[in-house]
Structures are given as structure tokens and as C-alpha cells.
Amino acid sequence: MGSATTQALAASIKTLAAAKDITLDTARELFAAARAVSDSSQLSGALADPSAPAAARQNVVAAVFGGFSAGAKDVLSTVVAERWSNADELVDGIEELAIRAAAVAEPDTDIEGELFGFSRVIAANPELELALGSRVGGEDAKSTLVERLLAEGSTSTAATLVITSLVRQPRERRVRRLLDRAMNIVSNQRGRVVATVYTATALSDAQRDRLSESLSRRYDGQVSLNVVIDPAVVGGLRVQIADDVIDGSISARLADLRQKLAG
């Protein structure tokens, strides 16, 4: 992410935070805007052109997205007034704002957990991931397939919107990577971080609470847990938070011992 994009995204997030009456319809409109900009080189070029006056870019938003809600138009107006490093990062920014809007609209919904759950379904079904990431098959067909899968698990409307919107337009990105990014965005919007915990056996509620409290103290903020049952861990835990890995598993200690013996 370029420095221009970093500043543009920060300004856009502030506008979203100040907006009133953010609903799932706002998120839906922002996802639609991201698709429209991505699908049209003419539109993306006009909105990402740093040589064009900000007012001119805002006029394009008013003309193209005039039917959107006031909240969505305000956010998009701020987005295009900022300078982005390139058109792709402009689209990424609008998409991130859509995900954040979904998190704002449904503050009590466990969107991160539902995104993680669907990510595990994808991980367990390589053919499904291939089908969703393939260029073969229309966006509507992929969206319908995902909606059918999510309906079986009673997934919330907010999480369903995020997942189906990302699947409709992966832009050559792996579906699981898209879901991981969305989880981190939702957690950031809610002021917490996500820890993925790998364990050989399920954790009790008491163990989850203790681990969450311990990690929250270590990272000076609220930490939510996503737990993966992995027999390869053997015993103990392996915890990953962003690029940090805390490996207290028996398998890791055995591997370290083998390496020392071999050395």
C-alpha cells in the first residue's frame, strides 16, 4: 500500500465514522461502487486521476452514484477527493469501507467468527475454493452458490453480504485470503485483533477466556479467538496474530529438539 493510499484510506475511514445512519444498505452500496469502479477502466481512471481537480472527481461520483444513500455518497465523495496511489488501491479502499460499514451496521453480530467459519469450509473443500476463484462461471452463479451454503448454517445477513460481495469479484485473489483480510478489517473497526489458535483438542470456555485475557494483556487490547482443531499440533497451542506466532506445541518442541540433535 502506497503512502498516498494510506493517507486517503485514513481520511475515508474518518468520514465513515462520522456518518450517521450507516446500515447494511450503505455497505451494499459501497460494495456495488467498488464493483462498478473495478469493472470500468474509464470510471476508475477518472476517479483515480490525481491531475483532475477533486471537485471534478466528486462530480463524477454524483453523476454515477446519485441514487445512493446520503451516507454512501458522503463516503465516496471523500474517497475520490483523496489521492490514491493507483486505481486498484482505490477499489481496495472502497471495498474496505464497505466491510467496515457492515461491521458498523451490525455491531453485535459475530461477523469475524462467521467469516472464519466459512474460511474453514473453504479450506476443507479445495474444489469449492477452485470453483469460486475460477474465471469460469458468472458472478451471479457464484454468489447464489455461496448464499445457498451460508443459508445452511444460518449465517447473519451482514456476514453473508460481505462474503458474497467478495466472491462476486475476487479480482484474482484467493478466496481464503479475501476472507482473512475481511476478518482483520472488521476486527480493526471494532478495536480488537484476531488470534488464530491451533490446538489438537477443543478448548473449554474457561480455557478460551483465560487465553483471551492473557493475549489481551500481551497485546494491550481486546483479542478475539478463532480456534482450529489440528491433530498435528499434538499438544499445547500454536497462536498466530498477524505476523506473530507463539508456538507452545509439543510438535514444535520436538522439531526444535530434532534440529538441535542434527546440528
Task: Explain what this protein looks like in three dimensions.
With 263 residues, the protein is α+β, with helices and mostly antiparallel strands. Helix content is 65%, strand content 10%. The protein is built from 13 helices and 4 strands. It has helices at residues 3-18, 24-39, 41-48, 54-64, 70-81, 87-105, 111-124, 126-133, 139-152, 157-168, 175-189, 205-218, 250-262; strands at residues 192-199, 222-229, 237-241, 244-247. A 4-stranded mixed β-sheet has the order 2-1-3-4, with helices on both faces. Helix 6 runs antiparallel to helix 10 (157-168) and helix 9 packs antiparallel against helix 10. The mean pLDDT is 89.
Note the topology.
Blueprint: H1 3-18, H2 24-39, H3 41-48, H4 54-64, H5 70-81, H6 87-105, H7 111-124, H8 126-133, H9 139-152, H10 157-168, H11 175-189, E1 192-199, H12 205-218, E2 222-229, E3 237-241, E4 244-247, H13 250-262
Parallel strand pairs: 1-2
Antiparallel strand pairs: 1-3, 3-4
Helix pairs in contact: 1-5, 1-6, 2-3, 2-6, 2-10, 3-4, 3-6, 4-5, 5-6, 6-10, 6-11, 7-11, 9-10, 10-11
